[in-house]
Each structure stands twice: as C-alpha cells, then as structure tokens.
Design brief:
2 copies of one chain form a homodimer. Chain A is an alpha/beta fold. Chain A has 13 helices and 18 strands. Chains A, B: InterPro entries: AceGlu_kinase-like_sf, ACT-like_dom_sf, ACT_Aspartokinase, ACT_dom, AKii-LysC-BS, Asp/Glu/Uridylate_kinase, Asp_kin_monofn, Asp_kinase.
Chain lengths: ~425, ~425
C-alpha cells in the first residue's frame, strides 16, 4: 500500500484537543490502508516561549545550546501525537531527529539536512505502526542537536518523504493551497491545483509564506510530489481523490502546465531603494559599493546601473526595509569617499510586484503586457528585474494593491489557465 | 585539580534568575580551579506540566512516549544553565542523557542506570569546560529515551560522580543537611556532619525525603562520597572547608561513627495496619494472605504474626495509607474464604517511628531504651520491627510527635554523638 508523509504546523498542534483532531485525521488514512509518517511542528507559541527563556539570560545565547532548547518543542508535540494515535487504537511511535537519525551539517539554528537513515522507520511501518518524526531538527556528525531554522518542519517533512520515496508529501496548513495571488488583495484570486517546482520556488523567494523556500528546493532536488492543503477540511481518501484538493507542486512538464504563461503574482512591501548618485563610471564600481554592504551581512535584492550624465552613473539597489538605515551608514562611512559619489538618496515607500510563470520561457510579450497594464493605470516603474520565469518591478508602495489587481485581471488569473496565451 | 559533581534541584533551577544564581555558584568553584560537572533537575513545575498534557489525552499514556516528553524538562534547564555559565565567562556545554550516553535498562518511567561513558565529559573538562548533564534520564540499548522516576536526578548525579571518580558529589537542596529528626517536630534536632551509608539508606527508606533512596544505594555500591547541603548559603571553597557544611554520607568506619549508637529518628504518618483475625495456624498462611496483596501491586511494610487462641493466629501487616481500601477489597474478595479468617480489622490512625544507627550492631540495650522511653510516656506499641541498624514501632498516630521528641532526648541526639554510649 502507498506511503504518504503528513506535515502539521504549530497551529494544528496548538492544544491537546487539536492534537486529538490530527490523530483522528491520520487514523483515517491508516485505516484506509496507507502507511503514514507524520512530521509535526511544536505546539504554537512553544518555540518562542523556549527561546525567550534563553534570551532572558543573554542577548546572544550560544547557538548549540539554543538548539538543545528549541528542539524540545517538537519532541513533546510528537510524543503527544503518538499517545493520541494510540488512544485512537493505532500503534504509533515517535522519534526525535537524532533517533532516526536525521543527519545535518554543523550550522546550529539554521542547519541543512545531509542524510536520513529510515531503516527504523521502515521497520516500524512494516509492523503496522504510524511513525511520528519531529520536524525542525536533526543531529550533526558529532552528536549535537541541530535545528533547521524557522519553518524547518516543512523541510523535514519533504526530506523524510524523499528518503522514504513516499507517494506524496502532504503539507497541512491553515490555507487550502497556493493562490494566484493573496486573496486579501484580490478577491478573485484562484487556488492553483498544480504549480511547477520552479514557480513555487520563485513564489517562496518573493515572499509568499505558504512553504519554507528550502523545503521547495528539497522537493525539487529529489522530485518529491508535495501538496499544500487545508487541515481544516476533512481529508479525501484515497489519495487520488485529493487531486482537486490543495495545490500540488509537481515535476511533470505536462501540456496543461505549458499553457500557464503567468501562474501567480507575488508582492512585498518589505523593500527599500537606495541610489548612490553621480558615481564616476569606472570598472569595479559595483564591487566597491556592494562589497561593504555584503560584508555587513545586508542582503541586496535588485541592482540597477543607469548612465545619467557623461562619464557618470547612478547606481541603485534594493534592500530589506529593516536594513535601510544600516546600509546607508555603511555607504556613508565606507563607500562614498572611495567611489567619489555626490550623494545618496533613499526611497522606502516602494513595493515589489512580480509575475511568475514557467510559460514565460516560451512566450514573448509577457513583460510587455505587464508594463502596458501598469502604464494604463498610471503607475510609474522605478526598477525592473527579470529571470527566466519571473518579472519583478519596483513601484510606489501606494499603488501596490492596484498593480496586483490589474495584473491579476490582465493575465486572466481569475479564469482557467488555458485561456491566457491567446492574449499575447 | 579535584573534580566535583554538583546537583541542583527543581527549586534552585525554578526561574531564569535562579539559574543565573546557580551559574554564579558553579563559576566560583571553577575559578577556584575545580573541574565541575553539574546535574540539574527540570525547572520546578515543568515535569508536572509536561506530564499533565499527556494525561489530558488518556488516563494511561504509553510510557515510552511519556519518557520522550518528560525528558525535555531537564534538556531545557541544562542548556539554560550552560548559557548562564557562558554569560559568567565560563566555557560550558550541556549534554542530554543520550548524548553522554547514560545507558539504562528498558523500564520506561523508572529505569535503572547500567553504565555511563564519560569520555566526552572528560575531554570537555580537560579543555577547561564546565559540563552540564541532564538529570533524571538516560537512553536504553535500543536508543529509546528513558527516565529514572521522581527524584531521579539525585541518582544521575551520584552515578556520574561514580563514573568520573569525583572527589565528592554535592547535592544542593533547600535544607542544609540531614538532621537527627525533623526540626519542625523537635526544635532541638541537630544536623549530622556525617552519616553512614547504611544509616542514610534506612533514613531514606523510612520516609526522610532528603535523598532519593536509589541515589543512596548507588552511592553505597560505588563508594561515592556524597554531601547534602544548602543551595541558599554561599559555597565554601576549597572543598576541605565544606567539612562543617551539610551532611556527608561516608563509607569510612571511623571511631566517631562507631560512637553514634543512634544517629537519627525517622517517622511517617503514611501507615495503615490491617489485621486478618483468627486464621487457622497452618504452614503457608502468610503466602495465602500476602500473595494476592502483592499481585495487586500493594507494597507491604511490617508483618506480624501473633498466636491468639489455640490453633488460631492473628496476622497483621502495614501498608501505605492510600492503599488501605484496595488492600481490604483484595482480602475480602480473594483471601478471607481461602484462609477461613473470621474477620478483618483495620487501623489507619497509626504512625511509624524508627530509631536508626550503625552503633546498634555492637551495642545491646538500644531497643530496650526505646521501649522504656515510650512506656514512660504512656505510649502503647502496636507492632515492632527490627533490622541490624534500625528499630521501628507502630503507635497511635496522635502520639507520634511525643514519641519522636522523647526518643530524641532519650538518645541525647541534641548533644554531640560521643556522649550517648554511656547511657546504655
């Protein structure tokens, strides 16, 4: 019988009553004949409670010890779920990351999974047990407990599914799938029944919070069919019935997927634009400006270089809004004199809007339709950045909702994806 | 330099502020040149909080999963202590039981320690680190987390001290040592600076709650010098200065210890007496009565068989008061008809008072002085039980305090121990 991995987030595991509810859901799959491995998060609020104890002791606690503390949250929720399953009459057993073991590298608080030995898990499954594996954590080669960073339980679930060659990894969450854009901004936003791995990767990196980006990378690397779906509705069993439930991240280049030129629209208000003005246009200028920024651990997103007057150039880039002040200080202290810049201007009232779709690869004119749409609404584009399957623009943040709504309509995202290509 | 093991209970670890205080105490020892291993309990209340979550799910949760849950309490407190030590400028590292590893048998929730591999700990100590090891827990040979039962952190500390051949195991608690009897009953009660291992074992088994009895057994088996002392007063360093602090459980048969005929008086109000009356006096009667009691997992303490009338006997025994009703039901349902007993009488208004001392071995007349003292106070003795170093009596519980006070005086326990033998 088929093997599936279920992942439940902190909200689903948030109380004893909710854990009972998760146990009833898992029991249904088990009784229908599925082998089930469950990867839960800690009970909501628990990880914050634990870490705040450490923060009371010192502003920068040792990360090895932080991992020892944080990892207990999932150990408790996993054992509670095993007990709840047993109360449902299902044989069940929980394992902490080190017991499986889930081997990671040594980067405490943001470790990466290197390998998973599933021998114990397979033996338990073969004996008819449901196996519960703590999300978010592992153990390094020296036997130290590690954690994967916020949202790491998604990655744990996908990695376990990859290791077990599961039929699907089902990520249960409080939304019922991945949408063409945020339904709070565009009420006509449509749930996608499928999304390609690359699109999901762009969506995640552009701030769509449904899945942790590293779990998407993992799903892509090991081709794990991963579905995002709601933990609030009754599960559809067998798995084939789930075909119209949630959003499946898949790896098949089927015709239907080709047809979707633009799959979704992502946006973010966490941006700030910095321009270093009137810099002499010499080779190496980008490195002179961005080197110190990178050394200060500030992440740069878009980069733009414009020739303004003869032999001079304006150099612009965007950073996360919270890093703006720090970035400006670095520029004033370490960069301005070196590159002989005239002045620095900043703009923190900007937003980023992106269209994403694998279909862009094979269709010209997608970016043009985007620019035309924004122009018809009187929205000025401040910066543009493109990748193979994504076009992003920086605009005034007061126009963000308008831009998202008009692009959603222009690319017919409220309709079935097949009808889009005719417009181009 | 000398190696010492410190154990701190849940109250000492009860808040971030208190953990800082423990770190400051440990730091003093470390700065004085000692190698220190610390074994903390969970923050007070935490183990109960965790187990109550499991109890909300089912009345009898799986014990393997309970251990997974309960063990997290010490993992958190140990890592917090390591962080607090680092904030004091001391290199420190925490290990969970499975990381050391502390190997136990398979008895979940009441496991026994089989062995401890201290290689990692020794290597850390040699590098100048303080090592924090979770109390209360270990791992069995299959890699499952186990816990040692309530008070198990004492046993962890003594076992770690044995494994490391520590100079002393210092058990910090909220009392400043082991007393000749409870100072709340006898204000003249005196702290003992030393107590023999066998006496401590009897005191622990008789209800003196200072140390878990299994930790005392462990200390005896491996001859670990173990000291009970207060976590509220400033530590005296070097260790030699602690000679007048707390109570040392020791293993040397020195002259001073010989002199103490009676070292302490223990008492307990948790007793109930059951008498099965007028049982035909035949071989095997004790087994017929106590077999079913034992099968019902009820612990029997004292046992007394009195011939009452010809060919008949009264058979009395004591149980913990909370087990009385259950014991009576077992007797009525499974025993009375079989042994042809006339009736069952119970007495739950009884208390047990015991005098304990290694000197009893070599001195006659100790029990006589006890009986004489009680008789002079008009206290009737209902049952008597003796061992090599202990004499216990069951009396009316309303006389318990009076008995303890008059015995404490009769054996001169408020004075220095040397003066006692002259009385006998």
């Amino acid at each position: 019988m088929a093997l599936v991995v279920h992942k439940y987030g902190g909200t689903s595991m948030g109380s004893v009553e909710r854990i009972k509810n998760v146990a009833r859901r898992v029991a249904k799959w088990h009784r229908a004949g599925y082998q089930v491995v469950v990867v839960p998060s800690a009970m909501s609020g628990e990880t914050n409670r634990l870490l705040s104890l450490a923060k009371e002791l010192t502003v920068s606690p040792d990360r090895r010890e932080l991992d020892m503390i944080a990892a207990t949250g999932e150990q408790v929720s996993s054992a509670l779920l095993a007990i709840a399953l047993q109360s449902e009459g299902i044989a069940a057993r929980s394992y902490a990351g080190w017991q499986v073991p889930v081997i990671t590298d040594n980067s405490h608080t943001k470790a990466r999974i290197l390998s998973i030995n599933c021998d114990k898990v397979i033996s338990d499954l073969d004996q008819g047990r449901v196996v519960v594996i703590t999300g978010f954590q592992g153990v390094n080669s020296d036997g130290n407990v590690t954690t994967l960073g916020r949202g790491g339980s998604d990655t744990s679930a996908v990695a376990v599914a990859a290791s077990l060659k599961a039929k699907e990894c089902l990520i249960y969450t409080d939304v019922d799938g991945v949408y063409t854009t945020d339904p709070r901004v565009v009420p006509e936003a449509r749930r996608m029944s499928k999304v390609s791995f690359e699109e999901m990767l762009e969506m995640a990196s552009l701030g769509s919070k449904v899945l942790q980006i590293r779990s998407v990378e993992f799903a892509g690397k090991y081709c794990v069919p991963t579905r995002v779906l709601s933990s609030l509705t009754d599960p559809l069993i067998p798995l084939d019935q789930e075909i119209n439930s949630g959003t499946l991240i898949n790896f098949e280049d089927d015709d239907k997927m080709e047809a979707a030129v633009v799959s979704g629209i992502a946006f973010s208000r966490d941006e700030a634009k910095i321009t270093v003005m009137a810099v002499p246009d010499k080779p190496g200028i980008a490195h002179s400006i961005l080197g110190p920024i990178s050394a200060a651990n500030i992440e740069v997103d878009m980069i733009l270089q414009n020739q303004s007057v003869a032999e001079c150039t304006d150099f612009s880039f965007t950073v996360n809004r919270v890093d703006l002040q720090r970035a400006v200080e670095v520029l004033k202290n370490e960069v301005m004199d070196v590159v002989q810049a005239r002045e620095i201007s900043t703009d923190e009232k900007v937003a980023k809007v992106s269209i994403v779709g694998v279909g862009m690869r094979s269709h010209v004119g997608v970016a043009s339709l985007m620019f035309k749409t924004l122009s018809q609404e009187g929205i000025n584009i401040k910066m543009i950045s493109t990748s193979e399957i994504k076009t992003s623009v920086i605009i005034d943040d007061k126009y963000m909702e308008l831009a998202v709504r008009s692009l959603h309509k222009a690319f017919d995202l409220d309709k079935a994806p097949e009808s889009v290509t005719s417009k181009l």
